Amino acid sequence: MNDTLRFPAEWEPQSGVLIAWPHADTDWADRLADVEETYIALVAAITRFQPVLICVGDDDIETYAEMRLRSNRIDMERVHFVTAQYDDTWLRDSGPITLKRADGSFQLLDFRFTGWGGKFEASLDDQLVGVLHGAGVFSSSADVRSISFALEGGGVETDGAGTLLTTWQCLHERHPEREREALSADMAQWMHQDRVLWLDHGYLEGDDTDAHIDTLARFASTDSIVYQACDDASDSHHAELTAMGNELAALRTTDGQPYRLFPLPWPQPVIDEGRRLAASYANFLIINGAVLMPAYGDAADDAARDVLAQAFPDREIVQVPCRSLIWQNGSLHCITMQLPAGLLATQITP
């Protein structure tokens, strides 16, 4: 690996988690009360372990968010706000992908965010990394590298040791003119990876992202992968997710060994106004000392918790109610971006 810059794994020490508070000018407007409850539960869970940095659109939204959090007895010593304009709250895809240098400084990769291939307005979201950097929320040792290439953080997964995992469907949808070999070379160069592993199978109905990897398969360590399985042969996802499981079984670590695989249970279909919603347990967030997992009020929630406890034996597994999030076709990991240890400015880190 390049010994100057490295893409840390999500399980490495963090200084905080970045989110954006939902408000009436985002796509959550029609179900704002429901989604606010999820955000309150999320902030409560994060602040048990580390700080959270919350983007707010203006002072009024900050005042309201602070009131809601205080009334729910959140540890406000670990909550920090920053004013920034955003189209929506999917910060996994509009926030910074952070590389760390050997000397402890950082490079924030600012890829183009196009609203998942032009599906939604995204001009404010596309400016978010620069706005946050200009607001001084990051360490003075962090610089921004803007890359004129459409890529979302939810579309890539790293083991922190030079292996990137992604899906062909998503990258090909964004860049249909590019060959896989060229895409692999570019992503390896930008994110300082030794190799790129591609999955050709796996999808979720109701997913706007064109099969982001973080809805399907996630590294739990350099030699293990947690993935969303489907054991219901009558379900429309069964063939694709079974094929994806077979692809994962065929992958090898850098030592030439098969990965240890942890299949997640399949929740019952969630139908809203006639459409299937994309419920995935693979959309979990790893933080200091814990894994926050999406819960859907399904009988499989506890079984998913048990699988994650096996994959992350040294971390507490915390369920966060996320049924309101899948109404907008994303879940817990999609609305968050972890910030590696040392990245937050000292004046906002407890």
TrEMBL record:
A single Gene Ontology biological process assigned to it is: putrescine biosynthetic process
A Pfam family recorded for this sequence: PAD_porph
Keywords attached to this entry = Hydrolase
**Keyword Ribonucleoprotein tagged:** no
Q: Does the keyword Hydrolase apply?
A: yes
Instruction: Provide a Gene Ontology MF annotation, just one.
Output: protein-arginine deiminase activity
- Per its record, how is this protein called by name? Agmatine deiminase
Q: Which organism is it from?
A: Stenotrophomonas humi
